[in-house]
Amino acid sequence: MPKTYLITGGAGFIGSHLVDKLLDQGNNIICLDNFDDFYDPEIKRNNIKEASKNTGFQLTEGDIRDRKTLDNCFRNGNIDTVIHIAARAGVRPSIEKPELYYDVNVRGTLTLLEAMKEYDVKKMIFASSSSVYGNNKKVPFSEDDNVDFPISPYAATKKTCELMCHNYHHLYGFNIFCLRFFTVYGPRQRPEMAIHDFARKIINGDKITLFGDGNSKRDYTYIDDIISGITGAIDNLEGYEIINLGNSDTITLNDLVRMLEHATGEKAITERLPKQPGDVDITYADITKARNLLGYNPQYPVERGLIEFVDWMMDVGLSRGGA
Prior knowledge:
This protein is 42% helix and 18% strand. It is an alpha/beta fold. Strand 5, helix 6 and strand 6 (175-181) form a beta-alpha-beta unit. The longest helix has 21 residues, at 98-118.
């Protein structure tokens, strides 16, 4: 039986892939996106170009902070589940604009939860972030770890939203899974993110900037694996849970550059600058809970995922000076 999903941030990187997946399964989608200019809005419009041809797809342009926009979505939608991906993204920019990040991420999420309460929609998947772990010394990161010490405003907003989600589960019986994403990459990735930025510059012969000594480590997760985790969460949504979605493998920044050189067939030109405020030393997901609850089983080691990503860049013409 087809269901109707409200996907906030549905024209973005992760959101548009989820839109495609759920439409392919025969569901109906209300895509809410404000086409913010954090990066070129035309990229996001192109992300949903094919989806917009599907009769089950409905686009609402608006902001999650605008209650009238949300009322229009819920009043006309018969929504089964909200998948809340919309957020002001990025660790470093959040240090420059903490008030904006709080307003969009926290107030926006609260406004959405209030609309769900009014329209009796009690199922949500919330897109959280591995950034909530801060510089935890214990690895891999487990959902039971203390996350009271975020080191960026962005991370603090995500932790705050997790707490609000638990509040609505406790008070109103909402079923909410908070999924902590670990450095997602792949086709349609935002252009300012490291893998996209590095790959484009390596191909173009431009210099890439590496912060720190290159030994920081990240748990890079391919978009198809993240989407499988989200759909698993939708299928098993009951109660309140926090769940890591990562690849459960770590790659140093130096090794990432070497892998991109291999994938592109080009040599990187690099410059090194000091480590940036807000950057964590490592992200590393314990995905035991995701395996047990969601049947999550990532299929893309980084070497494979980077080749897929570079192939996509070549196919859509983003490598030579494009976005």
